[in-house]
Amino acid sequence: MTDTPDSDIRRLIAAAKTAAANAHAPYSRFAVGAALLMTDGSIVQGANVENASYGLSLCAETVAIATASSAGRLRDVVAVGVIGGAMDADGRATGTAPVSPCGRCRQVLNEAAQMGGRDIVIHCGAAEGKAVASYRLSQLLPAAFGPADLGIG
Predict the structure, then answer these.
(1) Counting beta carbons within 10 angstroms of the beta carbon of residue 23, is it exposed (0 to 12), middle (13 to 18) or buried (19 or more)?
(2) Domain positions in the chain
(3) Which residue positions in the chain have pLDDT lower than 50?
(4) SS3 state of residue 6
(5) Of 64, 2, 10, which Cα lies nearest the Cα of 38?
């Protein structure tokens, strides 16, 4: 199902875990890290950033996509790694179940997928342990609305 080599999946999950360590999640105490594999093999990371005005919070996947876009690389996203979990007393993400992107993030990821002309694979990892579930974005967001619906892309 996945076009991503195992070595790249391991790199993505490791990078997502590193990013989660930088999460600013004082309200939910749920740290999330995301990592984007780019066409040149580089990785772009993001962590969730919460705000006292909850609606202004940013998910890790959205932060990573915005970072890639600000570098002019929105079309270059090949695969995504994401992990998350409740924070322990030291601020570390915990949990053994894979975490998948929320609906909003699926839509944000879809923008990059459609702009790049690919059905990207999302590798959902556990904060602790080695469990990884992989999905094509089209599985997580069937019949998605995006740039193609507006005649763009």
Answers:
(1) buried
(2) 6-142
(3) none
(4) helix
(5) 64
Residue-wise pLDDT tens digits, 112-145? 999 999 999 999 999 998 889 999 999 999 999 9
Round to whole Å and give the CA distance between 107 and 115.
12
Q: Which residues are catalytic?
A: 61
What angle, 0 to 180 degrees and rounded to 10, lies between the N-to-C axes of helices 60-70 and 103-116?
30
Tell how strand 121-126 and strand 77-86 pair up: parallel
Q: Which class for 96: exposed (0-12), middle (13-18), buried (19 or more C-beta within 10 A)?
A: exposed
Q: Domain 6-142, what architecture?
A: 3-Layer(aba) Sandwich (3.40)
- Kindly report the pTM of this predicted structure: 0.95
